[in-house]
Amino acid sequence: MFSLSYPRTRSHRLRSSNWSRDLFAEATISSSDLIQPFFITEGNNISEPIDTLPGIYRHSVDNLVKKAENARDLGIKAILIFPQIPKNKKSVDAKESYNSNNLICKAIKELKKHKLDIGIIADVALDPYTLNGHDGITDQNGNILNDETVKILCKQSLTLAEAGCDSVAPSDMMDGRIAKIRDTLEENCFYNTKIFSYAAKYASNFYGPFREAIGSKNFLKNTSKETYQMNFRNSKESIHEIGLDISEGADAIIIKPGMPYLDIIARASDKFNIPIIGYQVSGEYSMLKIASEKQIFNYTKALIESLISFKRAGANAIITYAATDIAKQLMNI
Ligand code: PBG
């Protein structure tokens, strides 16, 4: 019986030259794999830094257009927008979420006016609009009201579609919302509005900097989202959740957070034949960015390695705050 063993086989042989490492690389990364999230705020000509997310800013709509143009020029195919809503527009019933003149709708309309040829994805959830920072509306005791919330999410999704949004991304983790949102879009003739559903979204500690960025952190102080976001001790449950969202009409699914959850991406990619988007969330970005500022490692190299790991696990696209930084590097600018 012939068996391959040392020294007839040497693992170092194929690793020993650049060309053979490149030729047989299983996973690659390009700017067309990346989605850049942006935070927006009211006003003009504003780009204000966010303490917990070094290098990331809240932009006014005019500045957002310039940033989106820049992302498009770097080969990035889609952007994701999150609004910071002033406190006086937050309410118990989150009604600002479906005001067709709200900040995010203004941003979408402005971006569309510029015909940028870049996908515009809008988050669907109520956390920027509720007084307590929860993704849905709550009763007096702070319990999430699932079915009432889904009705509002449908109104929010329709408003976003009417503003011209290419894809809605429900990140709220309410039960049954994908079916209802899909029906709402179909009934209103938005046949090509995509739904990228956060199908497996875990109740994670890594969202901290994001909550600071949209201004919901202080409100959430004494509570958590564990009653509706997934338990991070579970993996099988993600398959159940993803299956539901696909059957309800999701066009692609988002798994979030990213790096500590690559097992979930790998499992989902084995099981489902639908595009998978991995989300390298705010806390992951901040860790990498702050460690590289302290020169613990090289930012670009560590980022590329981390993004390749998403692709290796089976992600088709990645949401990362570093998208533009990395796209620049990939173009050697
Ligand atoms: C909420 C939402 C969150 C993120 C995206 N949408 C935070 C949360 O669930 O509290 C987190 C993204 C990140 O941390 O980068 N709808």
From TrEMBL:
<dbReference type="GO" id="GO:0004655">
    <property type="term" value="F:porphobilinogen synthase activity"/>
</dbReference>
<dbReference type="GO" id="GO:0006782">
    <property type="term" value="P:protoporphyrinogen IX biosynthetic process"/>
</dbReference>
<keyword id="KW-0350">Heme biosynthesis</keyword>
<keyword id="KW-0627">Porphyrin biosynthesis</keyword>
<feature type="binding site">
    <location>
        <position position="241"/>
    </location>
    <ligand>
        <name>Mg(2+)</name>
    </ligand>
</feature>
<comment type="pathway">
    <text>Porphyrin-containing compound metabolism; protoporphyrin-IX biosynthesis; coproporphyrinogen-III from 5-aminolevulinate: step 1/4.</text>
</comment>
<dbReference type="GO" id="GO:0005829">
    <property type="term" value="C:cytosol"/>
</dbReference>
<protein>
    <recommendedName>
        <fullName>Delta-aminolevulinic acid dehydratase</fullName>
        <ecNumber>4.2.1.24</ecNumber>
    </recommendedName>
</protein>
<feature type="active site" description="Schiff-base intermediate with substrate">
    <location>
        <position position="201"/>
    </location>
</feature>
<keyword id="KW-0460">Magnesium</keyword>
<keyword id="KW-0479">Metal-binding</keyword>
<comment type="similarity">
    <text>Belongs to the ALAD family.</text>
</comment>
<dbReference type="Pfam" id="PF00490">
    <property type="entry name" value="ALAD"/>
</dbReference>
<keyword id="KW-0456">Lyase</keyword>
<dbReference type="InterPro" id="IPR001731">
    <property type="entry name" value="ALAD"/>
</dbReference>
<comment type="subunit">
    <text>Homooctamer.</text>
</comment>
<dbReference type="InterPro" id="IPR030656">
    <property type="entry name" value="ALAD_AS"/>
</dbReference>
<feature type="active site" description="Schiff-base intermediate with substrate">
    <location>
        <position position="256"/>
    </location>
</feature>
<dbReference type="GO" id="GO:0008270">
    <property type="term" value="F:zinc ion binding"/>
</dbReference>
<dbReference type="InterPro" id="IPR013785">
    <property type="entry name" value="Aldolase_TIM"/>
</dbReference>
